[in-house]
Amino acid sequence: METKRLVIVAVGGQGNLLASSVLGEAALLSGVTLHMSEIHGMAQRGGVVESALVFGDARSTIISDGEADILVGFEPAETLRALNKCNANTVVITNLAPLMPFTVNIGKGVYPDLAELQELIRAKTARLIAFNAAALAKEAGNVLAVNMVLLGALTQTGVLPFSADNVKKAMKRKTKKEFLDSNLKAFDLGFAAAAKAA
Hints:
Blueprint: E1 4-11, H1 16-29, E2 34-39, E3 48-55, E4 70-73, H2 76-81, E5 91-95, H3 102-105, H4 114-124, E6 127-131, H5 133-140, H6 146-157, H7 164-174, H8 177-197
Parallel strand pairs: 1-4, 4-5, 5-6
Antiparallel strand pairs: 1-3, 2-3
């Protein structure tokens, strides 16, 4: 199969690692080879968490600048920060609900304008799917399900070589039972949001 390179960026606590684990399980269910690595940074203190997932034949999990086929950002400023991983053919999915960094909260920094942020991403990539994933997670009944909303949007693009059914099976195996219904609903809302954006 053709190699696909995915970068996921988030702030610590947003569920990036669980999303990566679900994708890993979905790849296993689909018979797709996956190589994965993670950078945790200062995750527990609200720092960046980055996952690199390479589907198909690959010798390395490193995704160099300009190599990502798809970028998923759980937080808009982190999506912008990872834009160097993209190229003119990259599909970008981003949550538009910001988590203000400490420096912005104490008045020592300025958060990027969301409209300008989207213009910058559109100018460099093939396609941008941008929506408030936090609002959809809340609608699903679990404010922590931003990761599952974005997995739904990612699956809808068809860039990755597995079906929504296999992602949902993976969610059943990897997420806690008490959150499964809200996670599945969050996935469906994200899938629908990406379809609408198309």
